Amino acid sequence: MSTHFFSDTAVLTGRSLKHVTRSMDTIITTALTPIAMMLLFVYVFGGAISQGADSGTYVRYMLPGILLITIASGISYTAFRLFIDMTTGIFGRFQSMPIARSGVLWSHVLTSLVANVISLAIVVGVALAMGFRTGAGVGAWLAVAGILILFTFALTWVAVIPGLSAKSVTGASAFSYPLIFLPFISSAFVPTQTMPGPVRWFAEYQPVTPIVNTIRDLFTEQPVSSDIWIALAWTVGALLVAFAFAMVIYRRKIS
Length: 255
Known about the structure:
Elements (H helix, E strand, L loop, with lengths): L4 H17 L2 H26 L5 H20 L1 H12 L2 H6 L5 H29 L8 H28 L3 H6 L1 H6 L15 H9 L2 H12 L7 H28 L1
Helix pairs in contact: 1-6, 2-3, 2-6, 3-6, 3-7, 3-11, 4-6, 4-7, 6-7, 7-11, 7-12, 11-12
Membrane topology: Multi-pass membrane protein
Subcellular location: Cell membrane; Membrane
Main location: membrane
């Protein structure tokens, strides 16, 4: 590893972030689409789903799921940008320069983290405008931020795999569709108890539900249940597996 790993990664991350800020498609996909979903669920379906609760209460209920959808939507661009860099030969040019090889890959990962944090902040701002309120303290907010950043980090490394190995642009970004859909079959929008047997079983044991429940408990100042450990186990497990596979593929690509 180059002794200039951190400076190399910082420069490459700056380059990647410039591409993000110049792409309106990225901003629309990662921020406006989840916001549109939130508006639709609150002001169109919210009355029926929340059974008469005020819009602010339902925003607080559904916001954790919307935040996870925001992340799942945003990381598809990591795969897309990686695929473009691989197919246009930019990776090859970087490898011929005296820079840390892993810095090229880490720049995409860090760009994903920064871009998703911005998108999450925008979504939370809109939720506040829609009536979202919480008495959660600084510690609870930091815990929510930590969970969301860890979830983003894990999904970003998942996105690296198709970004490096896909055969087409569509294949590089299409993997995110199931991830975006996953919160809809969870406790994100309705209690799992309202679902029929097989669907309820899936909703209760898939990884999104414990993450949503943990964030919701933190927002509503409820005691955090054992879901937090299940959420961390799912997230850290996905991160470690995805990181290992991504690095194996990356080494093969640059060897």
